[in-house]
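Chapter summary example.
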Amino acid sequence: MESTIGLYKTELIDHDRTRSWTGRAEVERDTASWVHWYNTTRIHHSIDKMSPIEFEELNSSLRAATVPRRSPTRTGSLSATRCEA
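The structure predicted for these 85 residues follows.
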């Protein structure tokens, strides 16, 4: 199993050995960009080779299709099956 830090080192840090960052801010910016890519766009094998965004969209649409919608109720209205004492 691959570790996230291992991927980070391989894909961002070690990918281009000729790359030299000019300072901490540049490393932080590139790291934030990599994390965004990893969390939104990267193909994940654990979710059927989809990106997290694709998986969430599919999951949301399936949930919306299977969850019954409730009709709105009025505040303070009595139920039709009221018990009488």
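To summarize the output: The mean pLDDT is 80.
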